[in-house]
Design a protein that fits this description.
two-stranded antiparallel ribbon, mainly alpha
Length: about 260
């Protein structure tokens, strides 16, 4: 038998781990179902499907780490699933609900509608690609740019809230257009968003924190569309607001230095 060379490469694995990739597939299915539901005019179901995809997307990575089944294949598969669930799906849901009606105002407005949806999808793809290249190079406490799941939650959250209020998408075409572009551009911005990755559930917390969590769960149960949309909208606004606050503090320090 010929002796194996010490520097020979190990043969590639021919199998994949089932559990984390099954969760990733479930998240991708949620995004795909959202597109199908939106094409059929079932916008509430489409929004719920994206939120379910968010839950599954949050679980697959944690399950992989807990079971020590992280692989390069799983990471790449997760990114492709995220593009469908949090890029293509929210963009098409928003287009079918509101942006498609811009064409009633003229051909130019019609093009603006589908171009805005495309800009959102392209920004989601760029955001995911940049995230993959920055792993291990940036502070894990912060995301650079709005995370694509949060962006998707803002998009479909708006659809869900107005649908719950019996407001048709054709009546909020311009706000939907502005929101789509703004959320898309936030994803590819250099604005920092808190990641909550340094939050350890095993540590002790004040009693008021537990009370706040219970209150959030209670409010979500009472009115899921408004609570979920409000929470993720505040998170999307937190980045720009803290960016302005930091710039203002830097300006004040420079002003004091000049006056001294």
């Amino acid at each position: 038998m010929e002796e194996q060379q010490p520097n020979a490469k190990a043969p590639p694995s021919r199998g994949i781990y089932l559990l984390p990739n099954l969760l990733t597939t479930g998240a991708m299915f949620g995004g795909f179902y959202a597109v199908v539901a939106a094409m059929q005019g079932k916008f509430e179901a489409a929004a719920i499907a994206v939120f379910i995809a968010m839950i599954l997307d949050g679980l697959d990575g944690r399950v992989a780490r807990m079971t020590n089944t992280q692989t390069e294949f799983g990471a790449q598969y997760d990114s492709l699933a995220d593009l469908i669930s949090f890029g293509v799906a929210p963009g098409l849901v928003m287009y079918q609900w509101a942006l498609v009606h811009l064409q009633t105002s003229g051909a130019a407005w019609g093009k603006a509608g589908w171009l805005a949806a495309f800009v959102y999808v392209a920004c989601a793809a760029l955001r995911l690609a940049r995230f993959n290249t920055q792993i291990g190079k940036v502070d894990k406490r912060f995301f650079v740019g709005l995370p694509s799941p949060a962006a998707a939650a803002v998009m479909v959250g708006m659809v869900w809230v107005f649908h719950d209020l019996d407001v048709m998408g054709r009546n909020v075409q311009i706000p939907a257009l502005i929101l789509t572009l703004a959320v898309g551009l936030l994803m590819v911005s250099n604005i920092s968003f808190y990641s909550f990755k340094d939050f350890d559930l095993r540590n002790r917390v004040p009693f008021v924190v537990v009370l706040a969590v219970v209150l959030v769960f209670a409010l979500t149960t009472i009115d899921p569309p408004k609570v979920l949309f409000g929470v993720f909208l505040l998170y999307a606004l937190s980045g720009p607001l803290f960016w302005v606050w930091r710039r203002w503090r830097k300006f004040q320090r420079r002003k004091k230095g000049v006056d001294a």
